[in-house]
Amino acid sequence: MGSLLPAAGQRPKYSQLYVFDPQTELADRLSNFSSAERSLRPDIVSGLMKLFDVTNELVKSFRRIRSELNDPASINLRLRIVGARDTTSRQYELPTGSELAGLIPGDFLPDKEERDIIIDHRSEGLKRITSVHPKFDALHFPVLFPYGEDGFHVTIPWKSFPPNQSTDWIEIPESLLLPSSGNPIHTITSTVYPDFAQRFHNVSYLTERSIITPTNANVTEINSHMLALIPGMPRTYFSGDSLHTDASDPDRLEAEYPTEFLNSLSFNGCPEHQIDLKVFAPIMLLRNLNPSIGLCNGTRLMVLYLGHYVIKGMIMGGTFNGKTVAIPRIVLSVNDYRWPFVLKRRQFPVRLCYAMTINKSQGQTLQNVGVYLPKPVFSHGQLYVAVSRVRTPDGLRFLILNEDGVPSNCTRNIVYQEAFVDLHQIDSDFSYSHK
C-alpha cells in the first residue's frame, strides 16, 4: 500500500487509481501494464471498475476519499482499513463499509492498532501488508474477492463440537462387524450371499439381500466377483458411442476424441461400454422405461434370457414382483462439463446389482445388507442411508477398512450440522401455528 496520492510528476498506481482522477482512471490503469500486456480490452477493464464500484466495500471506501481531498483540511487525512473489527461478523454475511474502513483526520498513532492498515495522505515508498490481515487477499486479488470480503486471517473462529456430540468418526458395535480376513471381497460376499453356489438362481434369495458401498469402483469389483461364481460363460454387450457438438469444427473433435476414448468413459447413471451378464444374475435399471409396467429407474430384475436385441427379466420386489418384462437397447445422452461434447451411448440401460452404491440403494428395503467401506462415506447422510436399507439389525453387517486396508471398527459419519440449526424453533413454530 502506498500513499493516497502520487508524488508530484508521477502517475497514480495501486490504490491511488481509485482516488486520483476519475476522468483518466481507465487510461491510467491500462498504462500500468507492460507493453506485452496492453492488449487488454478497455471495455472489460471498464466493466470491472463499474462492478467494483457497486459491490466492493473497500473500493467504496477509497472512492469516498475523492471529495475529501478537495478540502484543505484533509492534508493529514488517513484511511484506516480495520484489522480486528469490534463487531462480531455474521458467518454468511458480508461486512458493511463502516466495519471495514474509516477516514481519520488529524494525527493518529498507528502502533495502537497493530492489525490495522493506515494509509497516509502522502508518504514515501510502499508499506508491506501482513499476509494474515483479513483484507490481504481482497486488496491483492479484487477479481477473486469482488465484494471486499475477508480472506484468510488468524482470527477465523474455530468451530468444534464437544466429544460426546461429535458427528465425525463413530464406532460400530462389535456385533455388527465382520471378522477380519485376508480377502475383504470374499468376506463380504460370502456373508451376504451364503451358499451362493446352490442358490444363485433363487429369486427370493436374491431379492432380499445386497451389498452397499460408496463408490462405483467398489460396486464393479464386487459384481465381477459374484458373476464369476455363476456357472457358464457370460454374454458381453458393447455399446455404440458417438459424440455430438455444436462446435464449428466437429471433425477436429472427433479426431481428438476417437471412439476408443469414448468407450473408456464412465458416468453416474449411465451403463458401461462393456456389460457382461449371465442368466439368473440380478440387474438394476438405470432409466425409466415404462413405469406403468414397473420399468423404473432403480427397479431390480433377475435375468431370464439374453438376446441380441432385448434382455428378458423378472422384476424382483415391489408392486410388480414376479412380472416378466423385456428391456431394449436405448440411446442415452450424457452431457458432462468436463468434455466439450454430448456423448451418445446406445446400450442396455442396466448394470449388475449384487452390489450397489449407497446413493443408488435409496428406496430399497432388504432383509440382509452388507455395508462395505474400504473408504469412508463422502457425503451428508450417506451412512444413515446405507444402514436404513435393512429391516432389522440382525440383517446388517459392516466390513470397514482403514487407510492401510486393515479391518477397523470406526468409520466417518458426515452430517452437516447447519441442516439442524434452529430445527427446534422451527418445530415449535409449526406446532404453535397448528394449535
Automatic annotation (TrEMBL):
<dbReference type="GO" id="GO:0006260">
    <property type="term" value="P:DNA replication"/>
</dbReference>
<dbReference type="InterPro" id="IPR049163">
    <property type="entry name" value="Pif1-like_2B_dom"/>
</dbReference>
<feature type="domain" description="DNA helicase Pif1-like 2B">
    <location>
        <begin position="260"/>
        <end position="304"/>
    </location>
</feature>
<dbReference type="InterPro" id="IPR027417">
    <property type="entry name" value="P-loop_NTPase"/>
</dbReference>
<dbReference type="Pfam" id="PF21530">
    <property type="entry name" value="Pif1_2B_dom"/>
</dbReference>
<dbReference type="GO" id="GO:0005657">
    <property type="term" value="C:replication fork"/>
</dbReference>
<protein>
    <recommendedName>
        <fullName>DNA helicase Pif1-like 2B domain-containing protein</fullName>
    </recommendedName>
</protein>
